[in-house]
Write a structure and sequence with these properties.
Layout: E1 29-36, E2 40-46, E3 53-60, E4 69-75, E5 83-87, E6 97-103, E7 110-116, E8 135-142, E9 146-152, E10 159-166, E11 175-181, E12 189-193, E13 203-209, E14 216-222, E15 247-254, E16 258-264, E17 271-278, E18 287-293, E19 301-305, E20 315-321, E21 328-334
Antiparallel strand pairs: 1-2, 2-5, 3-4, 3-6, 6-7, 8-9, 9-12, 10-11, 10-13, 13-14, 15-16, 16-19, 17-18, 17-20, 20-21
Length: 339
Amino acid sequence: MKRLIPFLLLIAILMPLFPASASSGTIPTFKIDAVVRGSSVTITTFNFPKNDSFIVTMGKMGTRGIGGTQVATQASNAGGSFSATYTIPDSLKNHYMIAIRLQSPTSGYYAYNWFYNNTTSGSAPPVPVPFVIPTFTIKDVDKNTSVTIETANFPADDTFTVTMGRIGTRGINGIVIGTQDSGTGGKFTATYTIPDALKGQHRIAIRLQSPTSGYYSYNWFYNNTTTGAGTGGTTPPPSPGKFVIPTFMIESVVKNNTVTIRTADFPKGDTFTVTMGYMGTRGINGIVVDTQDSIDGGTFTATYDIPDVLKGQYRIAIRLQSPTSGYYAYNWFYNNNAP
């Protein structure tokens, strides 16, 4: 019987974005006040907690600043509203759009935003070049050999890094297949070789991202031979079978020691990597604390140790993700004894 591979969906759990001890409505945010192209950005904060310290990072558009280049540390002092200016790092000076993030490694408070890397002053946003959203569709697939795409709205005279990865990754940190010159931009077709490491995968993610401008686009395809996509001659994709979305809830916490979870709708016979990280990371690229065999799947409970580096954190993110099937689920918990 063929293994059932699910569509990957993000499970949004509606929880407060601020600690329980915070006053009502204390959600830190900030706006972009001014930009000096390739040099600096000035922000104004709102509702920042007092006497806290934030790590300031910048990264490529779409990252929300997670895992970005640290450019400063920012003391909130009396909190509330204040202005600050940060230097744009060399690696991002030529990017068209840049993400910026302030996150406290102590309290877990965070806020993020982004800006056009064009010189502007005052509260008015910079005037960008005509805004386009590059996309692409899958035209043909030669199983375990190649995939052909057709783009739309690609910017001209840009160079994109082409990566492929397991389904659910959106091609982020995937295997580099090559580079793609967009030429005059707009619409063009291109064919890329499927790497050996992904041959045999049922579905594959593919991404084109420019390291210079920050433009990116991603898609995915069934690794089955198809021809004439969009012309009526495409081989229908295989049925994914029963649709399940793995989730888990927090059962109990022993402060700075362990967390116990209860799963629901987990696939059977799969193995998950368990990671924990700072609040706001969703456990992505977190500290590996265990591996979890789902055995018969469905519902089960499991207890994991809180790693030393996260002891003392007010809130902690936790994630279970299978490196094989691509199934994942994440949540977070207050690092207090509960129930």
